[in-house]
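Exercise 7. Given the components listed, write out the predicted structure of the assembled complex. Treat all entries as one system.
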Amino acid sequence: AQTVTQSQPEMSVQEAETVTLSCTYDTSESDYYLFWYKQPPSRQMILVIRQEAYKQQNATENRFSVNFQKAAKSFSLKISDSQLGDAAMYFCAYRNQGAQKLVFGQGTRLTINP
Amino acid sequence: DSGVTQTPKHLITATGQRVTLRCSPRSGDLSVYWYQQSLDQGLQFLIHYYNGEERAKGNILERFSAQQFPDLHSELNLSSLELGDSALYFCASSVGGGYTDTQYFGPGTRLTVL
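Answer.
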C-alpha cells in the first residue's frame, strides 16, 4: 500500500523568509500525481500545487514551488517570501493511476512569525 | 471558494442517532469523493461516486452509506453513531474519475457526537 510521510509535525518561519516542508512517499508505481494541500484555520482544504510524476520539471505556482526527486521518492514544498496568510496545516498527498483516492500524509503545521 | 458546497457546516447529535451530510459538486464535475478527518486517523478516504455509480470504497464503516443522485449531488448517511465518529467530513469533486483529475474540496461538515 502506498504511504505518505511528513516528518515535520510543526515548522515556523519569519515573515518574508523561505521555508521548506518535507514529504516522502512509498510506492511501486511509475505513474502518479503528488499534491500539496493547505488547510488554514477555516478548515477548508485548498490545493496549493500538483506535480505529475512523469514530468521532470518541478512545478511552481507563484511563491510556491516543489522539489520533486522521483528516485528518492521525495516531494518537498518551498514557500518563498512567507506571508502571515500562509499559516496553516499543509498536507502532502499522492494518487496513482487506477486509484480513486488521495493518500494523505499526517500534515505539517506552519507558523509564520511577524 | 472551491465551488463545492456542503451542508450543514456543523452537526451535533447523540450516540445511536442517524445523520445525513449533503454535498453539491462543482458545476460540470461528475465525481464526488468523501473523506473523514479525525485527530487520530488523519484524512481517510471513504468512498467515490462517478456519475451516480459507486467506483471505490475505502475505510468506510458498514454503518455508513452514500449515494449520488441524478443531479450529481451526494449524501453521506451515518447511522448508529458512536463517539468515535466525531470528525470533520469532507466532500471533494473532480471533472472525471481519473487519477489526473484534481480533487477540489468543500468546506467540510463538523460532526460532534455526544
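Discussion: The longest strand of chain A covers residues 88-96. The mean pLDDT of chain A is 94.
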